[in-house]
Amino acid sequence: MKTRVFVCFCALFVVISAWAEKIALVNGTLINPMTEVVLPGAHVLIDNDRVVGFGDEITFDLPKDARRIDCKGKFILPGYIDTHIHFFQSGDLFTRPDAADLNSVRPYKDEVTWVKSHVNDVFARYLRCGITSVVDVGGPFWNFEVRKTANSTAKAPRVAVAGPLISSVSREKLDLGDPPIVKIDGPDQAREFVRKLAEQKPDLVKIWYIVDKDHPVDAFRPTVRATVEESHARKIRVAVHATELETARAAVEQGADILVHSVVDKPVDDAFVKLLKDRHIILCPTLVVFERYGRTF
After folding, report:
1. Phi and psi dihedrals of 266, rounded to 5?
2. Residue 257: which CATH number?
3. What is the signed CA dihedral for 210, 89, 133, 252, rounded to 10 degrees?
4. What is the model's pTM?
5. 62 shares its domain with 173
6. Which of 9, 40, 46, 83 fits a 20 to 30 Å CA distance from 107?
7. Could you write out the three-class secondary structure of 67-134?
8. Residue 267's Cα: distance from chain center in Å?
9. 243-264, pLDDT tens digit by residue?
10. Of 46, 77, 108, which residue is a domain's last?
């Protein structure tokens, strides 16, 4: 028998917002990730777009005017949050010609055109997976149009976006006139670009902190600092792609708020862990992304 997962999320949002009624989800199995409690036969009360209480049928009394939805055989759990996505990438082999150039098989511009024309399908697939919020951590300026579309679409997750990545390197193969990655050549240019991004009211600013023999860690520090200062002055948080220990350390020391990947080049040390804790850094580990890239490419 298939077990269907019932997620309390956007499907109910339209009903609740339109009628502002009390809704009771009854007889489902409630999963509470915060307390690690699994409660069979649970009742959940939603009032005016908010979960206001839950319990079992013995300990939790439901108001008589609540509309009941029988969730027997289903699970009730909070909507999931995907904290690292890129709308401009489809996830297939043709979405990163800078890593594997397959333009001869399928032109990258055709891939992007397809992605842009199927945004509503992407929204629906997130909801079907129980994901009710997503964070796009960097892409072309049309990212902001995706957020606008999501905000006006009933069957869509909440969408937070960054614009083009502020980068230490260029990726010309991704530039179709609205590049997802922009090479920034110093602090002044960084400040100017943040001001341009701020006009779109981004939810965060993203730095792509790439290091190699031609781009050492310390060379990009002033640009990172300028980006952070200009963003924080506008109350915008800064996320950084920094996958080497010293790069990640430098990003945090320069004021970054979020690291969007784990460190992969060496084990982290106690000083780095303390730095993250002291600065209250958000770390999105993306535990399997590098493994999957390795398998694919």
Report:
1. -160, 160
2. 3.20.20.140
3. 0
4. 0.83
5. no
6. 83
7. EEEECCCEEEECCEEEEEECCCCCCCCCCCCCCCCCCCCCCHHHHHHHHHHCHHHHHHHHHHCCEEEE
8. 25
9. 999 999 999 999 999 999 999 9
10. 77
